[in-house]
Design goal:
EC number: 1.11.1.24
InterPro entries: AhpC/TSA (IPR000866), Peroxiredoxin_BCP/PrxQ (IPR050924), Thioredoxin-like_sf (IPR036249), Thioredoxin_domain (IPR013766)
Order of helices and strands: EEEHHEHEHEEEEH
Keywords: Antioxidant, Disulfide bond, Oxidoreductase, Peroxidase, Redox-active center
Structural class: alpha+beta
Radius of gyration: 14 Å
Shape: globular
Pfam family, one: AhpC-TSA
CATH architecture: 3-Layer(aba) Sandwich
Family: Belongs to the peroxiredoxin family. BCP/PrxQ subfamily.
CATH topology: Glutaredoxin
Length: about 150
């Protein structure tokens, strides 16, 4: 997994409308990027709703929030509409971005091993350098904790 001090990789994602964009396009301002396993599941929904609830505070700090999963853009659009989400949802369907950030990991559930996205958040500086990493995120209170770090910049 990428660590504090690493420069983010040059990666391309699709937004919920299927339009390509890069994280590089956000250079010049801080950015929060969070990885979540699957849209419209309980933990991922709570996390997206928590970031959305604090969207005004993130905007006031001038920091966009992007949630990344391997879901198809159409599913992300439906997810955002269903819950009124205002954070940017991005599709990494091929998994290249998850691989580059180190969030595509082996997981275990009831003794069964499988590959999946580790819930993780990255606070990225205006120069593209990672300022802070939250690995293995627990959803409750997380969006508020990240906001506190953003406001401390």
């Amino acid at each position: 997994m990428l660590e504090q001090g690493n420069v983010i990789p040059a990666v391309t994602l699709k937004d919920a409308d299927g339009v390509d964009f890069t994280l590089e396009s956000y250079r010049g301002k801080p950015l929060v990027v969070y990885f979540y396993p699957k849209a419209d599941t309980p933990g991922c929904t709570s996390e997206a709703k928590d970031f959305t609830a604090l969207a005004d505070a993130y905007a006031a700090a001038g920091v966009p929030v992007i949630g990344i999963s391997k879901d198809k853009p159409a599913k992300l659009k439906k997810f955002a509409e269903k819950y009124g989400l205002t954070v940017i949802l991005a599709s990494d369907e091929p998994g290249d971005v998850c691989e580059a950030f180190g969030t595509w990991v082996e997981k275990s559930l009831y003794g069964r091993k499988y590959m999946g996205i580790e819930r993780a958040t990255f606070l990225i500086g205006a120069d593209g350098t990672i300022l802070r990493v939250w690995p293995k995120v627990k959803v409750k209170g997380h969006a508020q904790e990240v906001l506190a770090a953003v406001q401390a910049l």
